[in-house]
């Protein structure tokens, strides 16, 4: 990526240098648009323990950007089966790629590696320049995350509801191969997901995402490895055998958030700057990459006479993303509240509902299609 030339004119300023911002810069550069990318070039991170569950639409976008093929094989793992456990024996739900007629249900991807490879692809993008301060552009795309200062400066109201929970991430190893199987436990008051992975040990590793009340999360973060592994064994009911820590542990607070508007004259919001959801469905980055695909399509299909920052043009993007993001926010929030309740009658009802859904293949296929981004 060549350095910025003095007085260079840009079509789009992308504020934010995470996965969403980098993907947008690549997508718009491919259209021949002149893009300024505002953010750090070499992010200084400590060990990044996050994993992303990418759906088929996200993988398709990364293929289109010629990034997917550059990911090292050990940086991603396909999910062929998903088993969901409730908090009673009747609460069981299983999905398989074979039954749904797809190659994979999802791909689990190392967060740090994906961000690095997006950055590597940018070095070959002829129309992208990195900038260290905002520059004039016809359109500003805000991909700065949920704490975006530029969003606040625009007067956009970001409604956020804190769950009083934190998500713990770690890497785990087991004795038996995972065989591409993911598992998730929905209970009051926590949600635990084991995501099949290849690091540090091929076929015998999991990425952990464990959402708990903040006080309990802090207790587990402070616990020694043996105590933490014991808590994991109890929480997973020994379903995959003993789980051993193979990394440090990290945590972050969880919330539901949505901007009251995601576009205006000369600007648009994408990713966490526009919406934040609970990670129980693994759809956070999928929503952000879907924003990228939608905005890129709107700009690509605009009338030749219409400016990039035209408010009516950007409303097309807003309309395209309104229903999917609102539906995912309501779904994740509803599921969390449903399984957070310890009311005996409701507990029995939700577990029986899971068992009933497991016996309805057409509805399962419909749900799978929504999760895959179809």
TrEMBL record:
Keyword annotations for this protein, in alphabetical order, are: Ubiquinone
* Keyword Nucleotide-binding attributed: no
UniProt cross-references to InterPro entries, sorted A to Z: FAD-bd, FAD/NAD-bd_sf, Ubi_Hdrlase_CS, UbiH/COQ6_monooxygenase
Q: From which domain of life does this come?
A: Bacteria
Stretch forming the signal peptide: none
Q: Does the keyword Ribonucleoprotein apply?
A: no
Gene3D superfamilies, alphabetized: D-Amino Acid Oxidase, subunit A, domain 2, FAD/NAD(P)-binding domain
Where in the numbering of this chain does the FAD-binding domain appear?
A: 136-323
What molecular function does GO assign, one term?
FAD binding
Name-wise, this protein is: Ubiquinone biosynthesis UbiH/UbiF/VisC/COQ6 family hydroxylase
Species = Roseateles asaccharophilus
């Amino acid at each position: 990526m060549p350095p910025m030339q003095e007085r260079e004119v840009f079509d789009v300023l992308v504020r934010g240098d995470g996965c969403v911002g980098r993907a947008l810069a690549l997508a718009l550069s491919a259209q021949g648009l002149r893009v300024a990318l505002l953010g750090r070039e070499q992010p200084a991170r400590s060990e990044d323990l996050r994993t992303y569950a990418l759906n088929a639409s996200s993988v398709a976008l990364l293929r289109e950007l010629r990034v997917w093929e550059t990911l090292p094989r050990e940086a991603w793992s396909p999910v062929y089966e998903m088993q969901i456990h409730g908090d009673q024996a009747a609460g069981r739900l299983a999905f398989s790629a074979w039954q749904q007629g797809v190659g994979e249900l999802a791909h689990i991807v190392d967060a740090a590696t994906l961000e690095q490879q997006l950055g590597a692809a940018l070095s070959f993008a002829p129309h992208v320049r990195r900038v260290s301060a905002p520059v004039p552009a016809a359109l500003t795309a805000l991909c700065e995350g949920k704490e975006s200062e530029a969003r606040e400066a625009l007067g956009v109201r970001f409604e956020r509801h804190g769950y009083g929970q934190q998500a713990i991430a770690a890497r785990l190893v087991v004795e038996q191969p995972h065989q591409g199987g993911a598992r998730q436990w929905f209970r009051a008051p926590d949600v635990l997901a084991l995501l099949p992975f290849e690091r540090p040990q091929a076929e015998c590793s999991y990425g952990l995402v464990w959402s708990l009340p903040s006080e309990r999360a802090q207790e587990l973060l402070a616990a020694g490895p043996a105590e933490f592994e014991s808590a994991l064994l109890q929480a997973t009911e020994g379903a995959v055998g003993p789980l051993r820590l193979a990394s440090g542990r990290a945590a972050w607070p969880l919330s539901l958030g949505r901007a009251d508007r995601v576009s205006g004259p000369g600007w648009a919001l994408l990713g966490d700057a526009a919406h934040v959801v609970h990670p129980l469905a693994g759809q956070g980055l999928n929503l952000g990459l879907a924003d990228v695909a939608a905005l890129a399509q709107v700009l690509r299909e605009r009338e030749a006479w219409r400016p990039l920052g035209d408010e009516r043009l950007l409303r097309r993007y807003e309309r395209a993303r309104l229903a999917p993001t609102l539906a995912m926010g309501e779904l994740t929030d509803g599921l969390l509240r449903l399984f957070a309740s310890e009311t005996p009658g409701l507990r029995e009802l939700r577990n029986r509902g899971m068992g009933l859904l497991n016996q309805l293949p057409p509805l399962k296929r419909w749900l799978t299609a929504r999760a895959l981004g179809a």
